[in-house]
Amino acid sequence: MKPLPFKYLLLLYLAVFMAGCASTRHLPEGKYLLDDVKIHLNDSTGTLDETELMTYVRNQENNRMLWSAKLRLGIYNMSGKDTTKWWNRWIRKLGEPPVVYDPANSVSDAEQLRKAMVNAGFLKASVDIDTVENAKKRKMKVIYNLHPGSPYVIRNIDYVFPNDTLRNIVMRDSNRMILKPGNLLDRSLLESERDLMTTRLRNRGYYAFGKEFITFNADTTEGSLDVDLTLTLNPPYPLDRKTVLMDTHREYIIRNVTCIMDYDPGVTEDIVNFRSKDTVNYRGIKILYGDRRYLRPGVLEENCFLTPGKLYRLRDVNKTYSALSRLQILKFVNIRFIPVGSQTGDVGFLDAYILLTKGKSQTFSVELEGTNSEGDLGVAVGLNYSHRNIGKGSETLSAKLRGSYEALSGNLGDFIHNRFMEYGMEVGINFPKFKAPFLRDSFKRRIMASTEFNVSMNYQERPEYTRIISTAGWSYKWTEHNKRDRHTFTPIDINYVYLPESTNEFIDLIAPDNPLLRYSYEDHFIMRLGYNFYHTNKRQERAWRQPQRNIFTIRVNAEVAGNFLFALNSIFNHRSDFHTNPYKVFGIHYSQYAKAETDLSFLHIFNERNALAWHGGFGIGVPYGNSTMLPFEKRFYGGGANGVRGWDVRTLGPGRYPGSNSVSDFINQCGDIRIEMSAEYRAKLFWILEGALFMDVGNIWTIRNYPTQPYGMFHFNSFYKEFAAAYGVGLRLDFSYFLLRFDLGMKARNPAINAEPWPLIHPDWHRDSSFHFSIGYPF
Fold this sequence. Notes:
This protein is 17% helix and 38% strand. The protein contains 14 helices and 29 strands. A 16-stranded antiparallel sheet has the order 12-13-14-15-16-17-18-19-20-23-24-25-26-27-28-29. Helix 1 crosses helix 3 and helix 3 (71-77) runs antiparallel to helix 4.
């Protein structure tokens, strides 16, 4: 056992910790270090949350890692006092200066806490401050004692409107209102009600209406906690005021819709009198082109939900923004409304101007890279081309060419015989609309899906074999509910692998009795149908809202393959021995299976520097009909950077399979069932560095008893005994736009039949450790 890396990590941690102990080193003379800040909440209702209230305290102690060591303060204290030296300046930049205790700041924070409780409905809340002084160490502990008292509760709600028209619009969906009798007098609920009413009115033509016209009056009685609430929708300001340009309390109808195709924000000022070189009127929309008609009029009409002669609706404006933003040829999209005609009367009119700025239509790039695969040196080159408006409908054509050469065993001299060569081509086209027959145009516009077609071919040549992999796919993608839900539906996806006859001798040599290994080097055909769903509750933050503390995501994938082909064979070429003599298409055995998997992730954010993440995943694949085994590329695998991180990728399982050689067992260590669970503590350290502590549990199993995978079959009465467990530490570099991740995992429990079952008790560095490098968080 040689746990040297952990020893060094411990020594580094202790060094920083000791530096943190001298936390007053850079503290000004006569000042105290704010060492700890606590909140004691005396709330019998259980309505208030200490963690949320802590966000109102601006003057907090230095950040802690694992709620103990002040790592960044320790780093800051490792600097010298001479700030003219670059080393001291750099160390201080990485660290965090000591937070000085200031009684005035504590009084200000106490007032903010009191206001927060008042806003939550506790109108008689109070806060007192206790301080614990350590004069010898020059440290101060501050305790805020919160006494919210009893909350005020809404008893009745009355509504006051300036006219019956507004009353009918607002009260039509009264059952969907946020405020109800029995709610606390919570300001956030009042604000949400104002937003909801404003949105409801702006979706009914009230273009100029703002939430400032909605006010509340709370009537309370001395000695009672009941509140009689009056919501008033105030009348509009008089139009004779110089600051009032239009009637805010009347419906507006869209008179004209104009698209300006070559709008320049820095040059174009007068959009009303904009001069164009080409004008087209198409289905009620006036289109002003510049030098070229780079988008067809029909494309603009399909993506515009503003209709002349209809009421202004905020939802139609948002739909138009969303639809036009999908057109990749457009760089900027802006929509303006200009009132026209008289500003008096029951109904007003608006002219809508859709301002579009064209982006680059074509891009080209070259990629050159060197490769080193376990000592095999090589070089690869790639050419990428993209056209974002190939058919004047913002259709995006993408093409990729890639070629690579690798000298096996690092022998660059024998570049003719002892080498691996690969050539690849991929072509795809994306249509920003739902391309499907027999569907109504109204449905296609509502769903706003994009359609993708793609084909690819990959040619691989080694001394032992030659392999050609071809794919073709057709899919739809769309989003819903403010992009919180994402869907991908794939009606057809084809994967075809072809190996010339000359490869047969190689197959018989390496895998005479291993169907899994033979499958990887034999012709096979997969035609599948699939669906993918993604959901998250992560919201767009608003200024008046508190940061979101709990975020979860759900991913679901499902696919079936071979059913259509099997049905055709059963009808036109039925035979009863297909289990032993499977059906073929184009002379190739095709796969038939069903597969489903789901992943749930949960993130709890304690504060801006500490968070806890949890992940659970389950998957199952079942071969049937024309197949007795899942295709190798569709099977699950264990270990790796996103699995149980105490194992390298594809070295865990299935079940208690005694894998001992990562090369020869690679093909066997896959399965049909996957169960995984992970927990990870994440802490921001300093600069761009983040730390992590994690624990992973899981394994894979086969759904049938395959001779080449002994001890791998799933059994309900024993599978829980075959879970693998790992623990470890991680270091991450967060560059905002991407994150580099380094994880070091150690085996804690190994279910393999020929292994040490509890490495946690008897660890061995070389046997039980696994290092992973990846991009992005594991979940």
